[in-house]
Amino acid sequence: MDYNIMDLLELPKASNRYSFMHNWASSGSITLNHGMDSPSLRPAAAHNSSSSGASCRKPGDALCPEETYRLRPDDHQELEHIKIEQKKKRCCSSKYSRALKHLLPVRPPRKNKSILPGSSAGLFSYFSVSWLTKLMWKAYKHGLQPNDLWSLQREDGSEANSERLERLWEDEMRIAEKDKRKPELWRAVWRSMRTRVIVSMVISILQNVLQFLGPSVMLKLVLDYINDSEIDHLHASLIILGIGVINICRGSAFNAMFVVGTHTATRVTGAVQAILYKKALKLRTGSERLSAQLVNFCNNDMERLFEACISCVFITAMPVIFALSFVYCVYILGPWALLGQGIYILFYPIMAVIAKAQSSVRVETVKVTDKRVTLMSEILNSMRLIKMYSWEDSFAKKISGIRKEELKKHRIGALLQAVSSTVTPSISILATIVTFLGYTFSGNPLKSSEAFTIFSVFNAMQFSVGVLPFTVRSVAEAKISLGRIQKLLELPEHQRRTGGMLNNNLALQIKNATFAWEVYNIDFKRRGKPGGDSSNASKDKKNTDEAKKNGAVNGVVSHANGHISGSQTNGTNSPAMESNPNMIKSIETLFNINFSVERGKLIGVCGSIGSGKSSLISAICGDMKVHNGSIQVNGQLALVTQQAWIFNDTFQENILVGQEYDEEKYKNVLYVCCLESDVNLLANGEMTEIGERGINLSGGQKQRVNLGRAVYSNRDIYLLDDPLSAVDAKVAKHIFNNCIKGTLAGKTVILVTHATHFLEKCDEIIVMQEGKIAERGTHLELTARKGEYYDMIGFEAAHKRNKEEEKKPDKEVMGDSNEKDDEKEETLGNGKLITEERRASGSVSSRVYLTFIKVSGGWLTTNIIIFAIIIFTLTRMFNAIWLQHWLDEGDGKVEERITNTTEYNITLSDEKLKGDITKNPMLWMYQLVYGLSFVLLLITGIVKGIGVTFRVLAGASKLHSAMFMSILRAPMSFFDTTPTGRILNRFSRDLDELDVRIPFFLEFLLQGLLFVLGQIILVCFIYVWFTIPVFIIAVLFIAVDVFLNAGVREMKRLDNTLKSPVTQHIGSSVSGLSVIRTFEKEKLFINRMYNNLDNHSASLLVFRLSNRWFTFRMDFMATAVTLAVTIICVFTKGHVSTAVAGLALSTVNGVCVFIPFLMRMKSEFQSRITSVERIIEYAYELASEAPREIPSTEPPPGWPFKGSVELKDVKLRYRPGLPLVLHGISASIKEGEKIGIVGRTGAGKSSLISTLLRMAELDSGSVIIDGLDISTIGLHTLRSSISVIPQDPVLFQGSIRYNLDPFEEHSDDAVWQALERSHLKGVVQRQEQGLLSKVEASGENFSVGERQLICLTRALLRNSKILMLDEATASVDIETDHLIQATIREAFVTSTVLTIAHRLNTVANYDRILVLDSGRVREFDTPVALMNTEGSVFQEMMQAVGIFTVEQMKALT
C-alpha cells in the first residue's frame, strides 16, 4: 500500500528539499533520499536543538541521524510499522564544524582533487595559503588554463548562498513590514555574512594589538637598552626574540583575516549575482536596458561589494589602535600626547566629508557609465545594420558625448582622491609635529627614546588611519550598489496564466479582458533609498533641440504593439511600488477581449500592423497586466516569437533546450520544420555551434529552429507569432501541412499569420483591429460578411488561386529560400564558430606600459610626475631626519660636553650628553622648520596626486576612443565569431579598472615604492652593516616578485576571461526571457548561470588568495629586515646616538609594516594592468575594414547618378581558407531596373547583398556601379550611397526622428512626408511627442511590422539610386504590403531596386528575376519568360503557392 509521505508527517516551514522513495517490503520501512525537486522536511523541534543542514556534508546527503519526524495522531494504524532509515550520518553536530576544522594544525589531504584545497586545509596551510603553492609554480612555469582551476565547495558556490540570501531577504521584508519601515537589502546581506565578518574582526583586533606592540612597547625597550650604558646580551636577545615572534604572529593574523574575508566576499558576490539573474527571469520581458544594467551590476557593482566585504573589518582597526596609542602616548608624554590624538580625531570628519563627496561623485559617475554601457550594448547588437547604413559617425559622436560627461565626473573623483592620498599619509606627521611643538613650547624636555617611540606609534597608526577612508568609501559604495540592486529586486514579478477551468474542453478562455503594458519609471542609477521617491523618479527635462540632436526624448511611450522593456513587469506590487505609485504607468493596449478556444483547435489571428496580434500572444503568456476581466490558460504553453531567439550552443541543444534526446522524435521535428537539409549543410551537423543570436543562421533557419524547439517540447498550447513570414512559400506550405496540421494536430494552436491560404484552413479566425477583436469566425463566415477580413485578403483573387493550389501535390522541400549563404563556411571544421578568448601569458609586455605612457602624455609628463613624487617623498623623509637632527643638537652644548668627557674621562648617558632641548637658543628655528615641512608636504602631495590621476584619465580617454573606433572599423567576421559579452566586458569592467582602480593603484605604488626606497637608503646610510642583510633580502624580494608573482597575473587573466561567459549568458537569457519562461526552462538556465558564476568565482577567489600567498611571504621577508636592523642596533650599542637608532628603528618598523601592503598593491596593479592589456589589444590589434573614405578616388557628389550594376565573375569567400560561397557570378543590371532575387538554401542571395555593400571583400572579380569599381572607393562613400531595408528591422534607443535621420540632414517636413509615404504618419501622430516620441532599446515599443515601415522611411529619406530589400515586408499584412510596393514603385521609379523575396507577389511584376543556386546564376530573365520555361526553378516556386499561369501571376499585383 502506498502513502504520500507529506500526508504522514507534520511539517514545519520548508527549507531544504527531498524526494521520497516508498518501499513497503517485509521490513515495512520508508527510505528518504535527498533530491532537488520535492518539498522539504524539517526535523521535529524536540530533536533539532543542535542540528542544522549546514553541518551535514552537503544538502545532497541523507538526513542527519538525530532528525526524527512526528506522525499525526489520526494517521492510519499501519503507520506504526514505519521507521526512517538513514543512508549517511552527519559528520558533526555543530553548525560550524567544517569551519572549526581549520583550527586543526594539519589535516589529511582531500579525497576529491577537483575541489578547492583551501576548504579542507589545516590551520597553517589555511592562513599561509600554502595549498596554492603548486598552482603558483605551475603558473610561472607553464601559464594557466581554465581547466587548471579547482571547483568551489558547495558552501562557497552561488546556488547555496543565493538560496540562503533569498531566505534572509524574505525575512527582512517580513521584519520591515512588522516594524513599519522600508526593507533594506544591505541588512539581509549583512546577516548572510555576519558570523564570518565577526570572526574576521576578532582576528583583526588581535592583529592590531600585535601591530601596536612592535613599534611602541618593543621599540621603547630597544631604545631604553641603547640609552642605558650597561650591556646585557641576554636581555637584548629576549627583546629581539620578542620582536620576531610579535611580527610573525601579526603577519599570520593579518593574512588569516584577509583569507576569511576573501571567502566571505566570494560567497556574497556569487549570491547577489545569482539572485539578480533569478529575478531577471521573473520579470515580464527583457530589453537592452535590462541586459546592460545587469552586466553593469555584475561587473562594476560586484567589484565594490567584494572590496567592502573584505575591508569592512578594518572599521575595528582604528578604535583599537587609537585606544592603545592613546593610553601608551599619555603614559610616555603625559597630557601633551592628547594633541596628537586630537589631530587624529579631527581627521575623521575631514575624511568623512571627502569620502561622502567621493561617494556622491561615484553615484553620479555610475549613472553616466550605465548610460554608456547600455548604448554600447545596443551598438554591438546592431553592428551589421550600422555598417549597412554607414552610421558609425553618428554613434561615435553619441558615445563620445557620453564619455566626455563621464570623464568630467571621473576628474572630480580624481581630485578628491588626490587630496585623500595626500592627507592620509600626512596625518601621522602632522600629529607628531603638533605633539612635539606643543610639548617643547611648554618647556618640557623631549628625550630621544620618548620622541621616537611616539613617532613610531603615530607611524603605526598611519596604516589604520589610511585604510579607514578606503573602508568607509567601500562600504558606502557597496551600500549604494545594493540600493540600486534592491530597486530591481522589488519590481513586481511575472504571473503565469495557469489554472483549471470548469469546462475542461477549453484550452484558453478570456472574458471581457483589457490588457495593459506596465511602464516602471525606475532609475536604477539614482542614489537614495531603494524605494525611491517621486522627485527622483521624474526625469530631467531636455529641450527640444537637444532631444533632436542626441535622440533623447521626453514623454510616455505609447505601446501600440510588440514587447516592452524588461523593467516593466507584472504581478503584485512591492512595498516600493506601493509607496510610490508614480513609478508605475499602465498603457492599455488590448480592449474588451472575449474569446475561448477549445482543445485541439487551430486558431488563426490576423490584422493590420499595430493591431495587437503580438500583444495578444504576450497577454496569453502573462507578459501583460489584466486591468479588467479574466484570463485562464488550461495547459502548458509553447511560444514561437516573431523574432526568433537563438542562444550560443549547438544546433541540437537549441532545439532540445535541456530535454532528453529522443532520436525518432528529433528526426521528425527536423523533417516537419524543414531542417534536414540545413543540418546537412552545417560543418559538424547538428552538433555545430550556433553563434550568439544565431549569427551564422539565416532568418528563415532561425525561425524554423525556433519552431522546432516548440514542436519538440510537446506542450498543450502553441502560440505561433507569425513564424511563416521568414520562410518562402514552398517551405511555409510544407511546415503548415506537416507541422501545424500534422505533428501538432490535436494540439491547441494559435497562429498569427498574414497568409490567407493558411488562414482559410484554420478552424477559426480572429481579426484584430486597434487592440480589439474586430471579427471572429471561420474563413467562409468572415468572407460572407464582407467586412474587415474580406477587405484584407482580396477574396476573389485568393479564391481562384487556392482552387488551383489543391490540384497539385507537394514536391520535396529542400529548405528555406532565404537562407544565409555562409552557414557552412561560418562553422567549417569541427563545427566550432565562436573563437576562444585570447589571453596573454607571462609578464605584461613592456609594450603595454610604453603604450600606456604614450597615451597618458609621454615621457616628459611621466618624468615631471615622478619628480613631483620624489619631492613629496623627500619631504616626508626630511620631517623624520629633521626631528633626529633637532634631538641630537640638544641644548646646543653637545660639542662642549663631548670635549669634557674626553678630557676628564667621564662617561655620560646619551640623555645627559645632549641636555634639555628647550634650552637651545635656536629652538625657534627647529620648531619653525619642523612645522613648515608639513605645509610643503601638502602642496607637493596634492600636485603629484592631481598629476597622476588626471594623466591616467587622459590616457584612459584616448584608449577608449581608440578601442571604440577599432571596434567600429572591425569587419563583420569579427562580430560573427566574438560574443557580444566579451566585447562589452572591455567597455565595462576593463574600462572601469582603467578609469577608477588603476589611477589609485598607480599613485599609491609610485609614492610607496619611492618612499620605501628612500627609507631603506636612509637606514643603510646610518648603519653601513645593514646593507648586507638588505642586499640579501632585496634579492629574495625580487625573486619572489619577478618569478612567483607571475601566478597572480595569470590568475587575473583567467578572472577576466571567465567573466565573459557570465556576461554573455545574461545577455542571451534576457533577450529570450519570454521563451525561457514559457517553456519553463528557468531552472535549466539558472543552473547554467550557477555554473558560470562558480567558474568565475573560483578564478576570482584563487586570484585574490594568490595575492595573499604573495603578500604573506613578503611579510616574512619584511620581518627579517626588522630583526636585522634590531640586531645591528642592539649589538652596536654606543656607535650611534639614541636619536639616530630611534630614527633607523622607527623607519624600518614603518617600512616593514608597509612593505607587504605595498607589494600587494604592486601585485594588484600588475594584475589589473591586464585590463589595459586587453583594451590595447582591441584598440590597436584588431583587423580593420577598408578605409571609410579614399580622397583620390572619391566619386562626384550625387554618385551613383544612374544606378546601373555590373557583376563580373564575382567570387567571394568570407575568410581565407574557407570555401567560396559565390562562384563566378556575372550579371548586368540596367539603370532603373527592378530585380527580384530568389533561390533555395545556400544559393548566395544574402552574400550577393553583402558583396554590393562590401560587408566582405571579394576573392576575385569586380562589382561596377555606374562605371566605377566599388573596390576602389571608401566604404562610407559606397554604403551611404545605397539604401537598404534589412529583414530584421533594428531601431535604437532615442527618438523616432533620431532613428530616421541621425545626422539631421532632412527637415521635419521631409521626415513627415516620408512617414506619410510609408503609411506610418498616423502611428507617429498618435504618439504624445510626435517625432520626438521615445523609442525603447531595439524598438520594443513598436511591432515588428511598424519597425519595418520605419526602416522603409529611412530608405525614402535617403532616396538613393540603388535600393536593396531583404524581405522587408515579411511582417506586414497583405494590404500594407501592397501599399508599400506601390510606394516603392512610385518613390523609386528611376532607382535600381534589388529585392530578396519570399512573397512572390512582391517580385511578380519586376523587370527581371535572378535565380541563384549554390552561389551560381541559375536563371536570369523576365518573370513571364521564366514562368513559360518548363522546369524552371521560378516556375516551381510559383506552382508551390498555386500559381500555374502567367495570367494568375500578373493578377498577384
The tally of helices reads 49
Mean pLDDT level: 77
Strand content of the residues, in percent?
5-15%
Strands of the widest sheet, in order across it, are 8-11-12-6-13-14
**Approximately how much helix is present in the residues?**
55-70%
What is the rounded Rg? 38 Å
* Spatial shape: elongated
Largest sheet: 6 strands, mixed
Class inferred from helices and paired strands: alpha/beta
Distance between the termini: 72 Å
Low-confidence stretches: 1-93, 525-581, 795-831
The count of strands amounts to 26
Task: Give an overview in words.
The protein is of the alpha/beta class and about 1450 residues long. Helices cover about 55% and strands about 10% of the residues. The protein is built from 49 helices and 26 strands. The strands form 7 sheets. A 6-stranded mixed β-sheet has the order 8-11-12-6-13-14, sandwiched between helices. β23, α46 (about 1375-1385) and β24 (about 1390-1395) form a beta-alpha-beta unit. The longest helix is centred in the N-terminal third of the chain and has 50 residues, at about 235-280. The relative contact order is 0.10.
Short description:
The protein has 1453 residues and is α/β, with parallel strands linked by helices. It is 56% helix and 10% strand. The strands form seven sheets. A six-stranded mixed β-sheet has the order 8-11-12-6-13-14, sandwiched between helices. Strands 20-23-24-17-25-26 form a six-stranded mixed β-sheet, sandwiched between helices. Strands 16-15-18-19 form a four-stranded antiparallel β-sheet, covered by helices on one side.
